[in-house]
Amino acid sequence: MFEKRRRIEFTSTEVTTLTLRDTSEGSRLTLDHATERIDIGRGLMEVEREWLFQLIKQEYKV
Fold first, then answer.
1. Each residue of 30-42: pLDDT tens digit?
2. What burial class does residue 24 get, using C-beta atoms within 10 Å of its C-beta: 0-12 exposed, 13-18 middle, 19+ buried?
3. Residue 52 contacts by C-beta under 8 Å, 6 or more apart in sequence?
4. Stated pTM of the model
5. Residue-range domain boundaries for the chain
6. 3-state DSSP call for residue 16?
7. Which long-range contacts (CB under 8 A, 24 or more apart) does 59-62 make?
8. Exposed e or buried b for every residue in 34-49, given b needs 16+ CB within 10 A?
9. What are phi and psi of 26, to 5 degrees?
10. Which of 6, 13, 14, 40, CA to CA, is 20 to 30 A from 59?
């Protein structure tokens, strides 16, 4: 019924790949992990994703 959640730990190098991408469907917040591109905050509204992007950038000095 519900998708299982995965717990992923990112290295400091992977955190620097944090990107807020504009698409035709809205923004996507992504991080690259090994060979995967991980979507962060898929259930968030666009303004919440932008806020989270700024928060992570500030916290991790990206």
1. 999 999 999 999 8
2. exposed
3. 29, 40, 41, 44
4. 0.82
5. 12-59
6. coil
7. 60/12, 60/15, 60/18, 62/15, 62/16, 62/18
8. eeeeeebbeeeeeeeb
9. 120, -165
10. 6
